From TrEMBL:
<feature type="region of interest" description="Disordered">
    <location>
        <begin position="69"/>
        <end position="100"/>
    </location>
</feature>
<dbReference type="Pfam" id="PF03080">
    <property type="entry name" value="Neprosin"/>
</dbReference>
<dbReference type="InterPro" id="IPR025521">
    <property type="entry name" value="Neprosin_propep"/>
</dbReference>
<keyword id="KW-0732">Signal</keyword>
<feature type="signal peptide">
    <location>
        <begin position="1"/>
        <end position="20"/>
    </location>
</feature>
<feature type="domain" description="Neprosin PEP catalytic">
    <location>
        <begin position="154"/>
        <end position="408"/>
    </location>
</feature>
<dbReference type="Pfam" id="PF14365">
    <property type="entry name" value="Neprosin_AP"/>
</dbReference>
<dbReference type="InterPro" id="IPR004314">
    <property type="entry name" value="Neprosin"/>
</dbReference>
<protein>
    <recommendedName>
        <fullName>Neprosin PEP catalytic domain-containing protein</fullName>
    </recommendedName>
</protein>
<dbReference type="InterPro" id="IPR053168">
    <property type="entry name" value="Glutamic_endopeptidase"/>
</dbReference>
Amino acid sequence: MASSAPIIVFFLLLLLLASAATNSSTTSSFKPAEELRKYRRVRALLRKINKPPLKTILSPDGDTIDCVPSHRQPAFDHPKLRGQKPLEPPERPRGLNLTGGVGGDDDELQWWSLSGESCPEGTVPIRRTTEEDVLRASSVWRYGRKPAHIVRRDSTGNGHEHAVGYASGDQYYGAKASLNVWTPRVASPAEFSLSQIWVISGSFNGDLNTIEAGWQVSPQLYGDGLPRFFTYWTSDAYQATGCYNLLCSGFVQTNNRIAVGAAISPRSTYNGGQFDISLLIWKDPKRGHWWLQFGSGLLVGYWPSFLFNHLAGHASMVQFGGEIVNTRPYGTHTATQMGSGRFAYEGFRRASYFRNLQVVDWDNNLIPLPNLRLTADHSNCYSVQGGSNRVWGSYFYYGGPGKSVRCN
């Protein structure tokens, strides 16, 4: 049973604030009944998200990792999954080279597992959600969701800015790339900086389907400035469906060694060592679900096909690159960095990159990405520059510092 201490502290806080409001000569907007309702909604959400663990691991970065029986994770609250268990691994795409990124072993990619701790077989590691996490969100209902925004490359929405490579005009059944991991500075808690793969289908007018995975720095979501491995999905252009990680019934995790939402370690350094991770998203040709592979062959889990309408078939666009949120503090462009915080022209060991860009075709073959296009919403703030060679295949550098002499 959960401790009653937080509830006692909360009611004491209510009494103190109510007393201060009574004694104040100015009009107060404090509403105890409304605050109590909000607190109850927070507690109800935490009970829904945080499942009883078989084992708990304390991470050096302050996270609590719960080892939850795989069939009790949040995904199985969904009516179409209730009473079921995670599926067995599907056939992987032909042509897949099971090698990961550079600079680290798959077993040593996240801080929580660096001490040698692990979750038992039959469980999945889940980052525990706290009251503070939920209260940082704009509302309890919006917790764990991206703001609704436009993904279309010829426009930005709600301050979202991109520097990306993409391909469209064909049928895509998956995408793969390696990307290096950095710790960009995020200037405001309401902003984020991420680097990811998008698998996209549908129109941009309200029924957009996306599947996303990569790394992000999001102080509002996680309470710190660490780069974290994440997933996302939506079937209605970020309006009411979908969420990050395991914060709603959606993504089904199958792996007991990778915690979605946990901090990645090590990271790349400017003019120093480079650390990248390999990500693959592809559609199981037999069952139709979309699977996620991390590193050199760790299957993280899958998005059930029934979550989507358009992606129940195939993707019409794949996209790779960076995204930030610009809230324009003080009326000028944010100083939130994308990638390494350096422009694309600085190249290897300085700028962020995506390399070995590939897609999965209709016959479950992994092939080089054809017709790569590059675009940046505001190239004076965040740029992109690409190429191709025998070692890296199709690749591009991207990123930038945000506010600068060139960007204001």
